[in-house]
Amino acid sequence: MKIALIGYGKMGHAIEEIAVKKGHEIVLKINIDNVEEMMPENLQRADVAIEFTGPESAVENLEKCINAGVPVVSGSTGWLNKWEDIKKLCNDRGGSLVYASNYSIGVNLFFELNSYLSSLMKEYGEYDVVMEEIHHTQKKDAPSGTAITLAEQILQNVKRKKNWVNEQSNSKEDLVIISDRVDPAPGTHKVKYTSAIDDIEIIHTAHNRIGFAGGAVKAAEFVVGKKGIFNMKDVLGLG
Ligand SMILES: NC(=O)C1=CN([C@@H]2O[C@H](COP(=O)(O)OP(=O)(O)OC[C@H]3O[C@@H](n4cnc5c(N)ncnc54)[C@H](OP(=O)(O)O)[C@@H]3O)[C@@H](O)[C@H]2O)C=CC1
Ligand SMILES: O=C(O)C1=N[C@H](C(=O)O)C[C@H](O)C1
Questions:
Q1: Which of the following is catalytic: 13, 29, 82, 139?
Q2: Where do the Dihydrodipicolinate reductase C-terminal domain residues begin and end (predicted)?
Q3: Number of domains in the chain
Q4: Which of 93, 148, 159, 162 has its C-alpha lying 20 to 30 A from 72's C-alpha?
Q5: What pTM does this model have?
Q6: Cα-atom radius of gyration of the chain, to the nearest Å?
Q7: What is the pLDDT of residue 194?
Q8: Is the CB–ligand 2 distance for residue 102 below 6 Å?
């Protein structure tokens, strides 16, 4: 598989290492200093683009890939206020897109656990729920994309919470997400249910970026030859 790497930072490097070990070829590397090379004829040399840049650049990069007719796997977080626009563009152009706030298998299993635990907790109003995410200090967005996905799962089930907030709150209706920035934390997510009697806590701790990068390469292998919009549940067959 020929891969265009859009964003050659921490994740771009980790993805390159895994992709090359699996026998894939990196045919284009785009970073902030050579964005002008991201033209259709260059993108079209790849079977798939993998985009990990950041909140400010993701939307434009996705538009370029979709308009060039190149399937794209995006991991950038902090841009989902533009999700509907990207979805429409992808559908209108008959394109291919995989998006996940977190590509690691462990976090995707954790999502299943979080969803199940929150479905149990819908009946037990004596439990409050709070969240915490811990990442390295270079991270540009807060809360993390993964924390938002976890919060949305909880809000779907625990109806006593009305919305998430990224600050301390005295309102029982707010699902509080605390964001901590500590080096070199690759990514820790905690969901804690507390009552006067006991606490129940689930935690996922990434030890490095290998899980995210390996999942993104898996998603790229999955999307080549397919049309439409997919997520990691599709890639992993989690139904
Ligand atoms: N979904 C998932 O599983 C994961 C998602 N992420 C997300 O991926 C994104 C990138 O993370 P990470 O690799 O750690 O960040 P880095 O800052 O290490 O890398 C981002 C890279 O993108 C480059 N860049 C910035 N703007 C552009 C642009 N317009 N075109 C091309 N390249 C550009 C940056 O260049 P420069 O440094 O020169 O600015 C940098 O090299 C973040 O949004 C993060 O939250 C991270 C890990 C896992
Ligand atoms: O920026 C990061 O590093 C990470 N970002 C993703 C997120 O915002 O959830 C995934 C992972 O936690 C690492």
A1: 139
A2: 106-236
A3: 2
A4: 148
A5: 0.97
A6: 19
A7: 98
A8: yes
For the domain that residue 15 is a member of, what is the CATH number?
A: 3.40.50.720
Question: Which atom of ligand 1 approaches the CA of 77 most closely?
Answer: 43
Q: What is the pLDDT of residues 102-119, one digit of tens each?
A: 999 999 999 999 999 999
Share of the chain above pLDDT 70, in %: 100
Output the domain CATH number for residue 117: 3.30.360.10
Does pLDDT of 68 surpass 90?
yes
| Nearest atom in ligand 1 to 11's CA | 13
pLDDT of residue 239: 74
Q: Is the ipTM of this complex over 0.90?
A: yes
Residues 222 and 199 in one domain: no
Ligand 2 centroid to Cα of residue 231, in Å, is: 16
Instruction: Judge whether 172 counts as a catalytic residue.
Output: no
Predicted local distance difference test score (pLDDT) of residue 142: 98
Per-residue pLDDT tens over the stretch 13-58: 999 999 999 999 999 999 999 999 999 999 999 999 999 999 999 9
Same domain, 115 and 88: no
Q: Is 139 a catalytic residue?
A: yes
